[in-house]
Every structure is written in C-alpha cells, then in structure tokens.
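Title: Comparing notes on inverse folding

I've been comparing how different people in this forum approach sequence design from structure. To keep things fair, I'm posting one structure and asking everyone to reply with a full sequence. Here's the target:
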C-alpha cells in the first residue's frame, strides 16, 4: 500500500487514539539514523510467491501451532511462544515492547527483525537496535523515509499482514488472533478493533 493510500487511515487512527504524528515522525527519523542496514530484499525473497502464516500473541496461539504453514512471521512477543515451542520464526515484526534477549538469539539465526518506530518507543529503539546482529528492516506508521518502510498497518499483528501482502505473498494464514476479546483494557480493545478493520482492508475477515 502506498503512503498516499495509507495516510487517510493513519490520520483517522491518530484522531481515534489521540496519538502525536510529530512524535511518530521523530521516532522514524531516529530509527533511520541508528538502523545499521536495510535487508528489505531478504524479506521480499522470503515472502514473495509463498504462503505466509502470521502469528498473533493471543492466548490461543500455543494451541494453534499445528496450523502453521509456509513462511512464519511472528507479531512481537508471539515470537517467544514460538521459540519456547522449538519454532524459529522466519521474521518478527516488533515495536520492541515484547522483546527480550531471545530476540537477539533468533536474529542470530534466520529470523529477520522488522523494527517499528512510533512515538513512544524511542528509548527501546536506542536500547535494542544496535544489539541485533542479523538481518533488519525498519518500519514506520508515518511517512516512509530512506530505508524506513511503511507497508500500511498499525498494530504488531496487522503490520506483518500488510507487509506480506505488499511483498507478494500468495495467501495469508492467521493464528493466535482473538480480535473480539472484551476482557482487555480500553486501549488494547481499540487496537484490536483497528487490527480487525485493517486486516479486512486486504481481504481477510478475522
């Protein structure tokens, strides 16, 4: 999705949550400054022409691992569920709030890390990005920058779906998603609402 297509949805999300666009842009600029490399070619080669399983971090994930098919992309801390089950994801999309040292180990293996910059994770960007030894890409929800990509999407769960769609996946398989969970706090409930709405924009009804 081109930014011109994404921007109206992004503006609506900012208004919905009261988030600061300038802070998002500052985080994107920081990531552009400290990101040591851009392995977008490796991510495209991984995804293009293949079926992709997007793993969300809902509690149901552990019971759905037998449904994994094709390329495996984990949404943030879902990577830890996979790792603890002996599954190394092919890629991890993360804003780093679920990161621990296992992410470094996975990145030393084959896992491509797609680090997302947004207005309130700049300290996490400074802490984690220089420590990753393997393949990396950077993403933003604001306007893209050189080597910082915006495929569309907002949450850790829907961003990899937009990326996989944009990079030529033949089909998306979703596990570990519970977008109707009403037991979570209002902020999380809002993010689930938007994840469902956004994933629907690329043709998947969760």
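Reply #1:
Here's my take.
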């Amino acid at each position: 999705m081109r930014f011109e297509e994404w921007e109206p949805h992004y503006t609506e999300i900012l208004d919905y949550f009261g988030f600061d666009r300038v802070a998002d842009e500052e985080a994107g600029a920081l990531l552009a400054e400290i990101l040591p490399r851009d392995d977008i070619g490796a991510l495209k080669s991984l995804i293009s022409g293949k079926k992709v399983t997007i793993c969300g971090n809902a509690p149901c994930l552990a019971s759905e691992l037998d449904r994994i098919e094709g390329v495996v992309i984990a949404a943030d801390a879902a990577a830890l569920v996979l790792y603890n089950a002996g599954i190394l994801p092919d890629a991890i999309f993360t804003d780093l709030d679920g990161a621990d040292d296992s992410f470094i180990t996975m990145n030393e293996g084959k896992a491509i890390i797609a680090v997302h910059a947004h207005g309130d994770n700049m300290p996490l960007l400074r802490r984690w990005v220089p420590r990753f030894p393997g393949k990396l890409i950077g993403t933003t929800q604001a306007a893209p920058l050189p080597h910082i990509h915006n495929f569309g999407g907002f949450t850790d769960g829907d961003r990899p779906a937009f990326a996989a769609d944009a990079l030529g996946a033949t089909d998306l398989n979703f596990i570990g998603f519970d977008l109707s969970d009403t037991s979570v706090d209002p902020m999380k409930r809002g993010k689930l609402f938007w994840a469902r709405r956004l994933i629907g924009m690329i043709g998947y009804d969760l």
